[in-house]
Design a protein that fits this description.
By secondary structure, this protein is of the alpha/beta class. The chain contains eight helices and seven strands. The protein has a seven-stranded mixed β-sheet, with helices on both faces. It binds S-adenosylmethionine. S-adenosylmethionine binds near residues 25, 50, 55 and 116. S-adenosylmethionine binds next to α2, α4 and β2.
């Protein structure tokens, strides 16, 4: 982890504890779990709440080109840092609740990687967020979300109303705090993909 990132994170958390939701950036183990299903075949990635860029760096290691990354970050200091660190990525200093009102609408992403503290958002906002993401995701695209809690942070009612399902694809004790990763995807998917996941 680059020098000073822990301190940056702690200072950001002191300013906005609910929005930052952790006193330290995610560790490499969680970053590996969040990105394990992503490859060069996935296509452009939308990352929400990248913070200091731990998952962003893992996405580059998976072979995603920097120019295929769109990063949405609310904290100005983090957004500036991300643009310095990933100069070819598209970094937008925005609240995710506003992002579909911008040039982002009608994008075509292969996946969404979310570090957002979803439990701090209102259910209506979570519903609108997922609806927007899936309207701009390719048919096989998935939304990856981690949580420190015991279950998927998206209410079943919201998933059902949008025709989505969630599956826990991993968890780790080697993170502060320990965390689990969920894949949220469309309930009905082409057979080829389902068979690929079973294999
Ligand atoms: C738990 S931290 C995760 C940071 C990073 N992904 C990691 O795992 O180290 C949550 C991040 O989401 C960002 N965030 C929270 N609410 C947001 C919102 N409404 N719009 C954009 N970013 C938001 C915070 O600024 C912070 O960077």
């Amino acid at each position: 982890m680059p020098r000073f990132d822990r301190r940056r994170f702690l200072l950001a958390w002191l300013r906005a504890p609910l929005r930052i939701a952790s006193i330290t950036p995610s560790g490499p183990r969680l970053a590996g779990l969040m990105t394990k299903e992503i490859s060069t075949l996935t296509g452009p990635i939308l990352e929400l709440g990248p913070g200091t860029g731990v998952f962003t760096a893992a996405l580059l290691e998976r072979g995603i080109a920097e120019r295929d990354l769109t990063l949405i970050e609310y904290e100005r200091d983090f957004a500036t840092l991300l643009q310095d660190r990933f100069p070819d990525a598209r970094v937008l200093h925005l609240d995710v609740r506003e992002m579909w009102k911008t040039a982002l609408s009608r994008s075509f992403f292969g996946g969404v990687v979310s570090g957002l503290p979803l439990l701090a958002l209102r259910p209506d906002d979570v519903q609108a967020l997922l609806e927007g993401c899936f309207s701009n995701l390719r048919p096989h695209g998935a939304f990856y979300q981690f949580t420190y809690g015991p279950k998927c942070p998206v209410l079943v009612e919201i998933l059902d109303s949008l025709g989505l399902v969630s599956k826990r694809i991993g968890w780790t004790l080697r993170n502060i705090p320990p965390a689990a990763v969920y894949r949220i995807s469309r309930r009905y998917q082409p057979m080829a993909l389902i068979e690929q996941r079973r294999a």
